Amino acid sequence: MENGRTLQSVVIAVLLGVLAVGVIRSCWQYRTVPQRTSGEKLQNNDSRSQKSSAARRESIRRELSALHSPEYLYRYIVKVIEKGSHQFDFPGGTMEGGYLSADLAPRVACYVMELGGHPCPHSYPKDAAMYFSSVCAGCHGSDGKGLHGSYPDLTRPTLLGIEKREEVLQSELSRLEHSAQGVP
Ligand code: HEC
User: Could you tell me if the CB of 160 is within 6 A of ligand 1?
Assistant: First the structure.
């Protein structure tokens, strides 16, 4: 009888012990897993990326609205003269940068604009024509029309690089607008 009661109290003590360990462990987990904090963090990240996506959309819209301005065309041509162009597939190949020095590039860019019927937004010395015919006309032709498709026609209403930029920006914008839909 004595033995039976001792056994009973040992079993109860062990059960209580197991229960206590269980309670302590779950309290500990509750304290160490900061569920709410990680939720807040996620929300912060989301709103940060929403903000940067909104900023990007705004800057794309700004660039798109300037894309057909004379200043944009002028800068594009200067950039091509300085850095070259490697984005199309003309029989004449690609164009290296640096055919002209940094002070001559803007003058010739103006001349190219006027060949295509776009008044240049900057004044420039008329010797630009001479630089164009000695440096650029070998490929683009003295009229800028690109020698029957061997090279790009510099007198098109919109240059190819600007057209391509417009497509890239439009598709990035619609992707960003699409993923922003449904976000409160
Ligand atoms: C050796 C031949 C060659 C010479 C010289 C050359 N280009 Fe080019 N140019 C090309 C080729 C080829 C392309 C297209 C390259 C590509 O695939 O992106 C091109 C592209 C361009 C474009 C972009 C056209 C567009 O529709 O977007 C401009 C602007 C341009 N050239 C201006 C000039 C000017 C100005 C000069 C003189 C300083 C010049 N090029 C000299 C071969 C030449």
Answer: yes
- Tell me the CA–centroid distance for residue 95 and ligand 1, in Å: 5
CA distance 138 to 112: 14
The answer on pLDDT for 86 being more than 70 is yes
Atom of ligand 1 nearest to the CA of 77: 29
pTM for this prediction: 0.78
> Is the CB of 159 within 6 Å of ligand 1?
yes
Quick check: 99 pLDDT over 90?
A: yes
- What is the pLDDT at residue 34? 47
Residue 90 to residue 149: CA distance in whole angstroms:
8
Mean pLDDT of 54-74: 97
Atom 7 in ligand 1: residue holding the nearest Cα:
95
Residue 121's closest CA among 70, 167, 77?
A: 70
Q: Give the count of alpha carbons within 13 A of 33, CB side only.
A: 7
- Residue 78: CB within 6 Å of ligand 1? no
- The pLDDT value recorded for residue 109 is 98
Atom index in ligand 1 nearest the CA of residue 132 equals 37
| Domain boundaries defined on the chain | 2-50, 69-157
The CB of 105 under 6 Å from ligand 1? The reply is no
CATH topology of domain 69-157: Cytochrome Bc1 Complex; Chain D, domain 2 (1.10.760)
**Phi, psi dihedral angles at 89 (to 5 degrees):** -130, 60
